[in-house]
């Protein structure tokens, strides 16, 4: 099997130094709608349902509307789970490899070009809710509701470490510059280990309810976590000190559970999303910059564009709102037919990809709101996806027990 790997050194102390990189500060006056002469909204979901990009009908019904034609736009799939696939991940450098984990308590390494299983990594005793490759692609980790995190070598499938300590694991993230892994837990704690030694580097305690989301900043110097208790904390990874804390006690901040967060490429801005239907733009120095409030239900996805000063939020209301973060104004609003689960901007273009409970993956132009492509193939809601940086390949995991590969 092709398992290209690049060797990356462990992060030195410099990667964990906190910096106050203050740009400009915008007063928190709430989101403003765009004026009518600004860019118009995107294409409607109803139009896209009738005709796909190639002009072919996507879904049709027989006389009387009793039968629905099934459309499968996927180019490959993996079908061994046979239970909901909760987590998927594309290898960072080998275009043929992917990992998936699911409700069958198993994780797999497999090929997206053939659909063949490479390794069965199944050692959990409860559902696998997170899978992730290390930044150099040398390791792959799986985290489960059994509270265990397993780390394997990608080239051999060999188990390198069994990591324990948290209760149910909720998410995992690798350091962007070295083999250090972070895991959030149902018990409100966050754990950090060094790989392959398995040395526990720090335990972060400060949340009092499940840690729902978290990650290293792109520069590797800080950690950001969000919790069901409505708090968001900026941590120093080296000392496990909470540098800044946002809580519902501040009336300007979220008043309910944090559901998702994103960090811009410069590691200066944070976008937080909440069950209360709001989003907040925060500065890494601890300031609330803006309220981005236009959704009617829980906001479940967030992301920054690397190409233009845009950010996006996706909600259970089916909407994706695209914001201009220089003016703090709503630029576009586009629509899925059901809850938005996840979104990701393309690395070098003002485009984004989203997946939804409506069983579709969609590609959008963030400037115009135009829906560029709709991919169908799942028969139940999509629970997770992984997108190649250029948006050319999308890997999805679904409640229907399959993982599918879509290609632009």
From TrEMBL:
Q: Name one Pfam family in it.
A: WD40
Per the record, which residues fall in region Disordered? 1-65
Q: Where is the composition biased (Acidic residues)?
A: 9-20, 28-57
**Which species?**
Polyrhizophydium stewartii
Q: Which UniProt keywords apply?
A: Repeat, WD repeat
Q: Where do the WD repeats start and stop?
A: 78-120, 121-162, 172-203, 204-245, 251-281, 292-333, 333-374, 375-408
Gene symbol of the encoding locus? SQT1
> Upper taxonomic classification of the species?
Eukaryota, Fungi, Fungi incertae sedis, Chytridiomycota, Chytridiomycota incertae sedis
InterPro entries linked? WD40/YVTN_repeat-like_dom_sf, WD40_PAC1, WD40_repeat_CS, WD40_repeat_dom_sf, WD40_rpt, WD_repeat_multifunction
Looking up CDD domains in the UniProt record yields: WD40 (cd00200)
Q: What is this protein called?
A: 60S ribosomal subunit assembly or modification protein
Domain of life according to the entry = Eukaryota
